[in-house]
Amino acid sequence: MFSRMLYTEVAAILRKLESKEGSVKSLVYNSRYKNKRQLYALLCETLKYGPVINDIITSTQLIRREKVLSNKHMAQVLVYEQLFGKGLQIGGKYREAVNRNKTALHAALVRLKVRSKVSRNEDLLPDAVKSQVSLPRYVRVNILKTTVEAAIRKLKQAGFSLVEKLTTENFCATVRQLEPGQFVQDPHIPALLVLPPATGLHDNHMYKSGEIILQDKASCIPAHVLAPPPGAHVIDTCAAPGNKTSHAASLMQNKGKIFAFDIDSKRLATMRSLTLRAGVTCAQLVHGSFLDVDPADPTYAGVEYMIVDPSCSGSGIVNRLDHLTDEAGSISEERLESLAQFQLSVLSHALSFPAVRRVAYSTCSVHWQENEDVVQTALQEYDGKYHLQHILPTWDHRGLNTFPQAHRCVRASPEHDLTNGFFVALFERTGLKTDQASSEDIKTDGENATVKKKRRRKRKKNVAVETGMEDKGASSVAVAYGTSSVEHVKDGVPHKIQTEKVSTSKKRRKRKLVSMEAKMEQKEANSKSGILPSNAVENVENCKSFSCGEGGKVVGQKKRRKKKHVPVDASSQ
Known about the structure:
The chain is of the alpha/beta class. The chain is built from 22 helices and 17 strands. The chain is 43% helix and 13% strand.
């Protein structure tokens, strides 16, 4: 039953691709079939062998001979499974129709290989498919659930072996020579492990539990260079399917908040399941457009970090098969211009938020119109307010030399870097302490506005406590002199002080301060002349066992001290 549903859904997507109703990626995401990975795999393989399958169907007149196979897209799926896949996983009328033509189908395949002078089925693939680079299997360790050391240990226990002494210089050469069962730790992103192409990990316990996430290296760069600290507030402007969001959450140790926006409800549902498995608790998923968010909204007043990874042409994705369904040159200048305008609008909107400090902009495109051109225009729009950080200094594949700061961006390509085609730029607000700060300063400066407010409140609280302690010391003198108000001693004379408990209007407070200043001056004059206030004289006579030491402290005379006398420290009462 499930195989029939799978074949039917693949056939439906093939029909939509032929009628230009969407891209491979969007149609798979919007499919009602739940197992997206299985759906995508069968669709890709059928598309790869598309020209070969069509040649065989035509030569055998399969559709003409079998009315049940009048749907040519279903016929394409069934022929792929019979000749190149795992064999038909379906019964009923479709299986009977294919079995009646099994001999003819295999004979047509043999004739095609003889005519093409090849011996393997893979050699029949179009040149565009054969020229694609096989990328390594990248595995990001989810530090929300485990550590890099623990993940390496578990892989070793599963039979894998770690290749040591990997550097940025020998990375590509070493990875290309990896044998099945071997892996390395990435030199640029320490939480990333690299295995040979097509290494199967979907059944691994760490993958099922969310301890590791299958994510291309290039896709890990934006959050890695953005580096939001614990406690930060972050916006992921175009978040689904959620790998960058979960990466940011792991860097933040789930402390702080991430607002993850996406306009596609189905993609957001996929993201919800991914973040749940990854153990992300600091992300708030928002179904809506980031462009509709008001930068002045108090909800986002503390946002200092942004991930801007908007929709793009996807021209850098290695396994993208839209070129097999599109006409030559179908990525027109008009489409690139339209995409670039959208990307610029999202980036400019992100830079307009008042508290934002850093914005990571990225695409999976190789076109300069979507990359360097967008970045340059944004810099010009915010003339001097932002500059580009020189990210990944040891990465030698830099931005195209189209404007002065382009070398501070990074590019990635399958041939040069063994990743999908990618572009990343990091904007930073000009004038921040992080421009020349140490790593410790960067960590401190990375705190969001909410954390800073808490720190200020804590400092105020500490000051209030210290003031209270001083008041207690002063109150002891007040008790010694028999006064009920809070006082302190200056030049041996008690003086009243203003406390935080007095709540009056500004005018009354001002008048009272003037009056107090006059009294203070009078008391100082009396002190210099050796005259004490009358109440103080009486209280001193009643409390001869005490004297005022240095700093206004009350010092008891042990010889004449009695239990009935007032305690030395009023705070002990």
